[in-house]
Amino acid sequence: MLTKIKIIWLTIKSLMDGDIFVNYERLASLNKAHLWHPFTQMKDYNNAEPLIIERGEGIKLYDVHGRAYYDGFSSVWLNVHGHNVPELNQAITDQLGRVAHSTLLGMANVPAIELAEKLVGIAPQGLTKVFYSDSGATGVEIAIKMAFQYWHNKGARGKTTFITMNQAYHGDTIGAVSVGAIPLYHDVFRPMLFPSHIIPYPYAYRHEGGAAGAKEATLTALRNLLETRADQIAALIVEPIVQGAGGIIVMPPGCLHDMAALCRKYDVLLIADEVATGFGRTGAMFACDLEDVSPDLMVIGKGLTGGYLPVAATLATDEVYDAFYADYEEQKTFFHGHSFTGNPLGCAVALASLKLFEERNMVEGVRAKASFVEHKLAALKDRPHVGEIRQKGLMIGIELVRNKSSREPYDWAERIGVRTSLRARELGMLTRPLGNVIVFIPPLASNEAELEEMTDILSESILNVTEGGSAT
Ligand SMILES: *Cc1c(COP(=O)(O)O)cnc(C)c1O
Prior knowledge:
It comes from Paenibacillus baekrokdamisoli. Its EC number is 2.6.1.62. It holds the Pfam family Aminotran_3. Homodimer. It is a single chain. The chain is α/β, with parallel strands linked by helices. The chain has two domains: about 25-85 and about 360-465, Aspartate Aminotransferase, domain 1; about 85-360, Type I PLP-dependent aspartate aminotransferase-like (Major domain) (Aspartate Aminotransferase, domain 2, 3-Layer(aba) Sandwich). Helices cover about 40% and strands about 15% of the residues. It has 16 helices and 17 strands. The strands form four sheets. Strands 4-12-11-10-7-5-6 form a seven-stranded mixed sheet, with helices on both faces. The chain has a four-stranded mixed sheet with strand order 1-2-3-16. The radius of gyration is 23 Å and the shape is globular. Pyridoxal-5'-phosphate binds next to helix 7. Pyridoxal-5'-phosphate binds near residues 135, 137 and 244.
């Protein structure tokens, strides 16, 4: 009641004098009163002054006070060309003048068709069919259900389970969580999930055998599982080359390639979850391209629309598609869809984003920028609390440790990652940690001057928090 009166009073006051600080107070109160934020302990969150973003320009976001912040994590790994990009805005405006939404149930629309053609053109070999949805998680649900029903339609009724990898993250719907393996996020839901086989993701830094040992352990676990259980397994789902939410963990070279070969050999489908790694992020259009891997199903989201609108897609091969292609009476139809499947506004902006990829040579650009960043961060390697710097393209994770030689992690309760990210925010850059791993995933459009400033902030905040000192 008191909050309500306060909000009404602040609304009247801000309308009367237009004071930006009163406006902030009003929004902050409303935020506290009505918003429940994702992946957030609201008790913590409500104790601090909330950051409230008002607009974006280039690779910076501006809060309601007009303060600028570098978007150092691409608004959770999705922004590509920056914010408020004229070409992308125009594509949405143009489409808006035609139609904002119409369904793909029983009819098609212009941008959904044109985007499907473009996606097939850039996707790994063999992926020829596009099934749209609206988030990475729904794209994963679709891939899982397609893989399951694929075997059902082919009469292999025993192939009903999935292989996933330790610390995997594939989204937050129940199917996606069932193939997830991050205990902190997923354990509470275990009783309502279907069980999956879990093999280790090759985490070289924390494997006694290093990169070679970690890779061998993964391949051995996969081989053993496939040798004994392939007739019960529908598919393996993998975050190719880089495991994102698990801590920006980079696979040793050749691992993905060998995993794909094993799946092929034992007749188990391969689902590549490229939601985080797709669209140039790793220095190739898709991470699978780095090792010439052609999955049977591929999920894309996040950067698909340049990070503008919620569109995702699941791409399939003819082989998968054909298992559903039958006379209606055979009941092989894929009964799945979402209200906003193939949304024209989203597809139009995705098309405009892909045009910019071509015109601006975005993927080659990422490789050059990646080596610039690698060079800039090299000095951090010797610092006493920097355990490992992991990088693929413009996807960077810095694992902080209490003891460098024993690799002893910081206790989770110290919240070293959260504190470092808060310090970065004070210094003018936004990011969000993964436990003790500091994440740096800048928009692909960031130029060298911007990357220089952002890496300086990153270093400064790490040193401030772990050593109490300054970078300079
Ligand atoms: C973000 C992410 C998802 C989930 O995507 P949403 O759009 O948040 O549902 C799935 N897989 C990976 C690898 C991701 O990084």
